[in-house]
Amino acid sequence: MSHAYATEEQVAVAAVRRACHLTSSVFNRLVKNETLTKGDKSPVTVGDYAAQAVISSILHHAFPGDPIVGEEDASDLHAEEGRLMRDRIIELANEALTAELGLGDSATAEELLDAIDRGNHPGGRDGRMWTIDPIDGTKGFLRGEQYAVCLSLIVDAKVQLGVIGCPNLPVDPVAPERGIGCIFTAVRGHGAQQLTLNGSNPTPLVIPQTTPETLNFLESVEAAHSSHSFNDRVSSLLNITRPPTRMDSQAKYCCLARGEGGAYLRMPTGVGYREKIWDHAPGQVLVEEAGGVVTDSRGEPLDFGLGRTLGENFGVIAAGKEAHSRVLAAVQEALNETKAKV
Ligand SMILES: Nc1ncnc2c1ncn2[C@@H]1O[C@H](COP(=O)(O)O)[C@@H](O)[C@H]1OP(=O)(O)O
Ligand SMILES: [Mg+2]
Ligand SMILES: [Mg+2]
Ligand SMILES: [Mg+2]
């Protein structure tokens, strides 16, 4: 790890590992009153809050001056109704923080709620900032399927480091006996790799070439998050015969980076949802460092300097270089068909 972000990468992998252990152990013990519905109707669990508290505390310890753009905030936990959840979050976060990192005595409830709320940075074009999505794909997490613990470092609007932990993802898709649980890391200019969940056995990742027979789309499980019908149309324009692989979270970027699927296509459903930077920053650097390309449906790069969101939603196309140009052309053809109809 001899590069300008070696310390950041080491700290980020340690933080994601700790958070992955926390989320997978909390899943087996999750009970009914440990999940809330947020203002945008999406679910959030004690696992999301505790994982953000852990990652934010570890980052603050190592890089006290760095701002954080994190998905969660502690506002729903201050009220009396939030007390049971709050106590559980404090217990889980302290368990994870004191386990092996030697961060000293247990943190107080106030310190941990402050750590969650340190994720309130508005983002922007200048300087260093971290993004945290403590559980990306909370719906997948609740179903016992794919989810990801996601961390990135953005410098002057460019993603320099991405770390994604996927506790439920098979280590090797063709060798199920190797078990589940992987960490993916990428540093701009220094490649992408997959590690085991305990941070060992680095394997470099390179996206292979695909043909219409081997290409298929990676897409959301949730029909409300991206348009399944648009992807079907693009598939038929490209003569893709394999059905799409549906999977929650940035695990899709990870699978793409290690040669599964061939293209991740996420087109808006037309309800005006703005994509969040923490949902794409680590995936973007991972795919680019594995030799791929990530753009919106116009072929423009994603802009991580606009604030907490990517701005107006033009969708996301991620794929290996050659597949990307074919998919982009088909996406534009499908968009033109839609325009011609209205
Ligand atoms: N209406 C929506 N449209 C698109 N994405 C959404 C929407 N609501 C939540 N998300 C976010 O989309 C991502 C999941 O996408 P996918 O369907 O590909 O798994 C998550 O980050 C999820 O947030 P969260 O992090 O809270 O789970
Ligand atoms: Mg969420
Ligand atoms: Mg997310
Ligand atoms: Mg999340």
Give a description of the structure.
This protein has 342 residues and is an alpha+beta fold. The protein folds into two domains: 6-204, Fructose-1,6-Bisphosphatase, Chain A, domain 1, CATH 3.30.540.10; 216-341, D-Maltodextrin-Binding Protein, domain 2. 35% of the residues lie in helices and 22% in strands. The strands form three sheets. A seven-stranded mixed beta sheet has the order 3-4-5-6-7-8-9, with helices on both faces. The chain has a five-stranded mixed beta sheet with strand order 11-10-12-14-13, with helices on both faces. A hairpin with a 4-residue loop joins β7 and β8 (192-196). The longest helix has 24 residues, at 6-29. The model has no long low-confidence stretch (mean pLDDT 95). Bound molecules: adenosine-2'-5'-diphosphate and magnesium ion (3 copies). The site of adenosine-2'-5'-diphosphate (A2P) has 14 residues, from β4. Keywords: Hydrolase, Magnesium, Metal-binding.
Radius of gyration: 19 Å
What is the fold-level CATH name, i.e. the topology of the largest domain? Fructose-1,6-Bisphosphatase, Chain A, domain 1
What coarse outline follows from CA principal-axis ratios? globular
Described by strand count, sense and barrel closure, the largest sheet is:
7 strands, mixed
Number of strands: 14
> Averaged pLDDT, please?
95
